[in-house]
What does this fold into?
Amino acid sequence: MLCSVRWLFEFSVALFLPAHGQPLELLAPRSVPAGEEVYLSARIHGKPASGAEIRVRGPAKAAARIGSSGLMVREGPGLSFPLLRVLYPRELVLVLPEKSEGWCRIVTPVSGIGYAPCASVPEEPFGQPLGATDPAGELRTREISAIATSLEIEARSGSQTATRRILITPAEFDRTGQLAAGIRFRERVFLKGRDGPFRMQILEVDANHPAIRILPAR
It folds into this structure.
């Protein structure tokens, strides 16, 4: 009889006490083309988690817009390293935490990781935070899809957190063509939120092609 009373008490407590430690889940696509909208959704036990704060955890929490004079990006932290590429005004780069004697390690839109003087890449927050989920537990943003890279996204609701990794893939081009031996043309038309359309045109030169001869700068 004593065991029956004890079982009934423990069962009643389990029924009427509120549940703790409900798992927070962050839903996100595995990959998104650069420049496209990213759809994020937060859930707790399958129900919308309204007001969950979404932020970027890595690889960078800072970004920078290139100034009016452009920027030369190098393969290493110093002027003695080879030139990787030239960035144009208003291009966006991610600024990684690693710094070396006034040089910042950055992620560029096309060429991947390079180095630039920290004074030329004034940092601004990148996805800190992106925002909060709406009553349906959703958040849509293009803020994090400008650069092709792998991002770790975090959702926080109260004391609970959840993370998800998203791969921002290089954008597909609308038109491509061979202009000459070793020279390729690419064009993409895209929108930025409600602005646009914008047109991006790229000339790719294959320095290893036998028809291409690169002359040293004087």
In short: The mean pLDDT is 82.
